[in-house]
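Notes for week 9. Today we move from apo structures to complexes. The key idea is that a small molecule is not decoration. When we ask for a structure prediction with zinc ion present, the ligand SMILES becomes part of the input, just like the chain. The input block below holds both the sequence and the ligand string. Read it once before you look at the output, and try to guess where the molecule might sit.
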Amino acid sequence: MKKLILTLFFIPAAWHAQQTVNQDTEIVNYISQVHADSLKSHIHKLVSFGTRHTMSSTTDPERGIGAARNWVLKKFSDYAKNANGRMEAFIQKHVIQPDGKRIDRPTDLGNVIAIIHGTNAQDKRMFMMSGHLDSRVSNVMNFNDNAPGANDDGSGIAGLIESARILSRSKFPGTIVLVAFSGEEQGLLGSKMLAEKAKNEGWQIEALLNNDMIGNHLTSETNLTNTHQLRVFSEGLPYYQLDKNARSIRAMGLENDGDARQLARYIKETGERYIDNFQVKMIYRNDRFLRGGDHTPFVEAGFPAVRLTEFNENYDHQHQDIRKEKGVQYGDLPEFMDFEYFKKNVGVNIAVLANLAKAPAKPEEVRIEVDQLTNFTTLTWEKPKFRENITGYYVLMRDTDVSTWQKKFFTTKNRIKLPYSKDNYFFAIQAVSNSGNESLAVTPKVKNEK
Ligand SMILES: [Zn+2]
């Protein structure tokens, strides 16, 4: 007899009375190790470099981006000692020339990278978290004045350091990569440099969580406070190879099920599973108006990449000279940050990275049968190549007008026939480990589709 275990989760209360929250105790333990005090001390250290402008000194031992990136490298290298040779840390460097835009002198650009290698060298899956180390004031070319960049994006960098500290001590099947980009404010230069390297070298990046400003809770102008929501921005229609895929996206109505959106959905479900009284808010666009982010060069290179950002932004404390005007303090200073809120946002990152890196790889050859008129839905798939601790698969289902998965069916088989019409729902398949860690969800293709 076919056995199905049905788990309901995150369904509006009006529909169902209960939801099952299955937490992996290891991940709960990681999150409990995120400390507001250590995040705070990292922010103060980052601010102490005066400016971290991309064109500031790379040779001064105390002031400028060079001293800052050496400090980040030192932190990563220290944590690597916990990892028994599984973790490496280095700076990806390149001297860039004036570009007639936001670089007006030869500049030593450097991304600080930590890689916590997976336990199986054959398994090339990479799960990335990033932030940007560089900072700025009102004039984007001003590399002299103090640019504390406490929240933008000291928060992203402090989050990376805290994640490195916690995750370096554990072994995962998948590889975790932590990146402190430079050159973000000068035109996403560091992320372009790494995205190009990743594409040329065939890195198998399955997720990039780019954190840019995750430690402020108060809006400027409207004075709204929000300490319980984190935004995740993701593209709908894929930028990469849209021409090639537009026909099937349109035919199957998959404009809301691209890789970046599936990643955003996964972040929402996983983040809310582990962080109490917290909501991950999916924003259905790649980024905010008038602003860019380091996930975008990865999106454009075809990798699933999203931006994680605080719900509320405060323009008095972004890209501002430090000054007082009419009693208002401007500047990106630590005193305007909320470290308890910040801690939750770091927790979301750790939950997602650990859940992905512990999970089996994604199921392969996921297909939906569409060659017959029937009120059943039949899905088939093949087991993933890398499947340490795999226990089975979740078949995810939701109404076409609902943004998150509503039902999941567990099976150990490679085929499922459900008494729900394929016309009325979206489906996807995840592989799941015996401690409940799910792979990213794979949207089925129709038979014979490549
Ligand atoms: Zn930023």
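Residues 339-358 form the longest helix (20 residues).
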